[in-house]
């Protein structure tokens, strides 16, 4: 079920921005949730990652925002910094036609000083993680007395990460007559208990919990005694994906898999909870800009991370539950694109396999999982595909007034680096990243280190 955004009671600037972004029709979650959100009702939404839920609440926040009242009017709580950054960016994008809106991101893993200064200048909308929000509250840096809307995004994930007490403490500081929107991929008993004490006469919306079979093809391979890292390498050589996420169930298995792949020349990076925030950020930058073909990750990467255009998902181990399996494979085949997800199955994992088969059977009564034989070992004699790009970091960013155009202009001056050899550019607060082809790495570094940007000199180096 979808409809045109023009049928909704949205302000003209919001409709104009949606038109500029070529957002004409709502997704199912937006079609079902937005009318209730815009009517000011409390809403519970159960929908998978990639369903368009962020716009479903972002448009509601922006529609009711009183720009002239410079107070915190909306709070969005997220489980991870990556999701908070993504949500804040989407709110800014959707609200760019409205003048002087300030969206502030408050998350752990970064120094507090810049956040404290930003808070002193005020904000309309705050997006952040529970721990850091509570820290600022305890130090009386935030006032939620005029808050009108509270959003819990990926609520199940926040509870899984142990944020329940932090959430309760934060919620106590907000007005009781606020609007509350709860978004969750799953609806376990913990979420039900949280919702009961939090929302008032909520509208409940459940959007299909599994990706459409037409967009994601699944395959299951029997390990038959083959080591998991060897099996993953065979699959990578057989499918030759431009980008692939390999899921593991533990941080130790994730790091071991990534180390094994890199030792054999694969362009692979690890993403798990033991990494420092800076390393997590750089890992995602490199993967998204094609400086690495393979991301080996724990399930933290299954939700909330801005991973796009993914060719292949490999479950090196069966997920602990079917909800997690659904979210893993949902990283591919997004926005209607074709996707492929493969799962490795060892002896003793029949129970988990049966649960997945039951899930698929509910979608297609004729469906039965057939275990395939792994691709042949001789594929490993071939050289792994190299990454298409390399990532350069510039020690200058938004606070230095740098923009993507400044970086492109410097690189392309006198055709030193052709525009076609430049990939994604990300400008952050204190530094920037630019992807270039491996052939132009040395030239690009020479240009960036020996020329001025915005009248200043900045150091640049390759991220490895």
Automatic annotation (TrEMBL):
Swiss-Prot/TrEMBL keywords: ATP-binding, Helicase, Hydrolase, Nucleotide-binding
Motif Q motif location, chain numbering: 3-31
Domain Helicase C-terminal, chain residue ranges per copy: 231-380
Domain DEAD-box RNA helicase Q residues, every copy: 3-31
A Pfam family annotated for this UniProt entry: Helicase_C
Coiled coil: none
Domain Helicase ATP-binding: 34-205
Superkingdom in the source lineage: Bacteria
GO-annotated cellular components: cytosol
GO MF terms held by the record: ATP binding; hydrolase activity; nucleic acid binding; RNA helicase activity
NCBIfam families noted in UniProt: PRK11776.1
Similarity annotation: Belongs to the DEAD box helicase family.
Protein name: ATP-dependent RNA helicase DbpA
Organism: Aliidiomarina iranensis
Lineage, broadest ranks: Bacteria, Pseudomonadati, Pseudomonadota, Gammaproteobacteria, Alteromonadales
């Amino acid at each position: 079920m979808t409809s045109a955004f023009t049928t909704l009671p949205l302000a003209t600037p919001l409709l104009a921005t949606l038109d500029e972004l070529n957002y004409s029709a709502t997704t199912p979650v937006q079609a079902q949730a937005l009318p209730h959100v815009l009517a000011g009702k409390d809403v519970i939404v159960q929908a998978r990652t990639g369903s368009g839920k962020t716009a479903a609440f972002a448009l509601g926040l922006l529609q009711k925002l009183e720009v002239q009242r410079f107070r915190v009017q909306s709070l969005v709580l997220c489980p991870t910094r990556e999701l908070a950054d993504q949500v804040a960016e989407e709110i800014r994008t959707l609200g760019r036609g409205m003048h002087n809106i300030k969206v502030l991101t408050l998350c752990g893993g970064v120094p507090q000083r810049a956040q404290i200064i930003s808070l002193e200048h005020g904000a309309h909308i705050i997006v952040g993680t529970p721990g850091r929000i509570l820290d600022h509250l305890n130090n009386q840096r935030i006032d939620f007395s005029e808050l009108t809307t509270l959003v819990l995004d990926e609520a199940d994930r926040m509870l899984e990460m142990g944020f329940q007490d932090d959430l309760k403490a934060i919620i106590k500081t907000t007005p009781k007559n606020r609007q509350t929107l709860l978004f969750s991929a799953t609806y376990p008993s913990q979420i039900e208990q949280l919702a009961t004490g939090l929302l008032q006469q909520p509208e409940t919306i459940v959007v299909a919990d599994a990706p459409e079979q037409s967009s994601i093809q699944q395959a299951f391979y029997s390990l038959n005694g083959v080591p998991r890292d060897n099996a993953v390498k065979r699959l990578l050589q057989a499918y030759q994906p431009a980008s692939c996420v390999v899921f593991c169930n533990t941080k130790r298995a994730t790091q071991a898999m990534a180390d094994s792949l890199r030792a054999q020349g694969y362009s692979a990076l690890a993403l798990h909870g033991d990494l420092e925030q800076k390393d997590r950020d750089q890992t995602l930058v490199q993967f998204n800009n094609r400086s690495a073909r393979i991301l080996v990750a724990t399930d933290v990467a299954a939700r909330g991370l801005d991973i796009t255009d993914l060719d292949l998902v490999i479950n090196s181990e069966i997920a602990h539950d079917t909800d997690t399996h659904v979210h893993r494979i949902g990283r591919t085949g997004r926005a209607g694109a074709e996707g492929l997800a493969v799962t490795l199955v060892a002896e003793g994992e029949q129970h988990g396999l049966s649960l997945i088969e039951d899930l698929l059977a509910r979608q297609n009564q004729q469906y039965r999982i057939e275990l395939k034989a792994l691709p042949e070992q001789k594929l490993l004699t071939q050289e792994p595909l190299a990454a298409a790009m390399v990532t350069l970091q510039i020690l200058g960013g938004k606070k230095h007034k740098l923009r993507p155009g400044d970086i492109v202009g410097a690189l392309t001056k006198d055709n030193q680096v052709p525009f076609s050899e430049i990939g994604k550019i990300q400008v952050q607060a204190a530094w920037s990243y630019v992807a270039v082809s491996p052939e132009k790495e040395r030239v690009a570094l020479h240009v960036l280190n020996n020329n001025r940007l915005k009248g200043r000199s900045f150091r640049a180096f390759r991220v490895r």
